[in-house]
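Lab meeting notes turned into a lecture example. A postdoc, R.K., suggested we walk through two folding results consecutively so the class can see how the record format repeats. The first protein's sequence and structure tokens come next.
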Amino acid sequence: MSTPAPLALSPRIQATAAPAIPTVRGWAGRYAGAAGPLIDLTQAVPGYPPHPALLERLAALAGDRATSGYGPIDGDLPLREALAEDMAGFYGAPFTAADIAITAGCNLAFAMTMAVLGGPVILPVPWYFNHRMALEMAGILAIPLPCRAEDGFVPTAAGIEAALRAGGRVLVLVTPNNPTGAVYPAALIAEAAALCRHHGAWLVLDETYRDFLPAESSPPHALFQDPSWRDGLVHLYSFSKAYCVPGHRVGAIACGPRFREALLKALDTQQICAPRAAQAALAWAVPALRDWRAGNRAIMAERGAAFRQVAAQLPGWRLDALGAYFAYLRVPQDGPEAMAAAEALATERGLLGLPGPFFGPGQERHLRLAFANVELPAIAAIPAKLG
């Protein structure tokens, strides 16, 4: 009797690349420890714990019957109000709870936004790999928008316009950027928004890392000061980084009423509601921990400065971009390409970073290192790993 063929799986899922971070961490299983302790710079996680008072509230609320039931599809009102007030202070523009929907993490916020908007979607390269994966799984065409190291990995207005003329209906911008850390200038963001309006396209602005911008750069753009932003802009945010709660999966979408009406269908189908205990705890944390967040921004700035000093000690390596949580390093010219370099660093030197090809085409000479994950002594040890 012949062995039956394996049952078919979704071709879209089959065509989607394997998750990047588990792939690299799998290499670490072959590291024998000869070059000292393992340093894991793969995932963008805050390298310090949540505030003790936030942990206390999370613990208490998780045991509260009131947070065990379903909540509003678009999020609990106290958190939506707290985020609207916080955004108003940050951007210098009015927001209300009606502008905000709470999601089960920012990755899901992106996926649901794409479900509402469709495509084709313009993604600057290098891109955040989960964005590309979400589009591929949904069958939405991605139009790569190459960004050059010579331009600081910031897209150009000419490149954006060309992609819009090529049929892009949605432009995605991530600033501060993942993977490069690049911070997009306010003038470029304004020009991108104007080009989208001219071409009848949506702008999706992911500012997951906006809490780690230098204090003097606030607000990072003026888009929200134009009341018409609600007609063509969708804004994404994550509570994971600023409040150190990535495991609780809470993100947010800011949008206008027309988009919101359609979004409710995706929210109801894909999440029903975001985690209730975390929403309640964060509703307290947003105003109460403002000073603590500012202190964490200073910690990350210190780590970024330390990494910049470290990079200057690396013969052959070149720091092409740095910001927020990330450094984007160019592999030495006489070295192997990024995939081979990253695997060798993991298995032989005990340094885990993500190779550039995970972030799109043309990235074969780069590594992303998430320096935010580790304290200063580990950053100081990096030259010995890369040297």
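The second example is placed directly after the first for contrast:
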Amino acid sequence: MKINRRGLLGGAAGLMALKATGARAQAPALPKAPVAINVIDVGGALALMQKAFEAYRQAKPELVSRITYVKAPAPELASKVKAQQDAGRIDIDMILTGSDGLAAGLEQNLWLKLLPTFGDRFAGLEENYEPAALNLHRAQGQGYGVVINYYPSGPLLEYAPERVKTVPTTAEELLAWAKANPKRFMYARPANSGPGRTFMMGLPYILGDKDPKDPVNGWDKTWAYLAELNPHIDYYPSGTTATMKEFGEGSRDIIVTTTGWDINPRALGIVPKEAKIATLKGFHWVSDAFFMVVPKGVSDDKLAVLLDLMGYLLKPESQAFAYDEGYLYPGPAVKNVSLSMAPKESQDVIREYGRPEYADLIANNPIELPLTPDKMVLAFRRWDEEIGSKRPK
């Protein structure tokens, strides 16, 4: 079930110096014998792309003997990688992460600089990206993370039409509704939830805050709003899955969602198909992506294969798998990947559970970048200290 899928020092001294400074260097030569690759997914990208990974393994047995996959919560990623690096033994070769895990690793200088260092292995990369994916690649990835999947994200409200007769249309109406219906509105902890962090980052646009890109000095209205909303929320789950289950079971009436978290749980039967979505006045999309990241300390043999693998995963035929069951709708990060290229089961799900209003919402509302990684870390920390810690659970 996709809902639960939510995983340099080798070489010559000259090459080491180039890697350390981020200068352009030629990629290491491909190994003469196949290597085993270990992938950790902390955001859910494997739900979209594992078939593409396996297609690469089958196509190039001379390079890859096996690929192992591990899933872990995003907040645990940085400490896990740092512990391995401090011990001088890195067992993780590639990381698939959202902007949360990417930001945490950048703060601690854990990731290998891939671009422009190995630009020769990413020919035409920027020209091939969808425009919004390219913006994320530049602003969020910063040469360390390579966007593999993209979506406009949210924040969207998902509600049960049989229980919510008057749907909030403004932030003020949502607050009033939450006060009148205690514990019936829910969102998850932003540091480990795409919808949760999208809601947090989308509010400054909705509320008209001074600087939506500055959570320290520009979010006075947002922090005040979240604090006022806080007493009327039962608790903040550690991930989005719980919000979907509780909404589907009927213990919550309105939750925060995104395009993918709207489509996929309904396709899986966790959320009723009849659930509806809404936006608040002043709505801007806050885009999001999954990134491919390589930790420092990976051997040159593995790095050479990883760079080749990344190029393969960014081909249109690999990107077509990203439609999946709507998990990160639409999903492909590169141009010219139509739904007709996706497997038939993906096409069937999108046609049945997708929403025609998404095309209009995407075309006619601004698509903003999320916070830069350093600002995102500050926002997560402040939310944890001032909002999340004030709830009993």
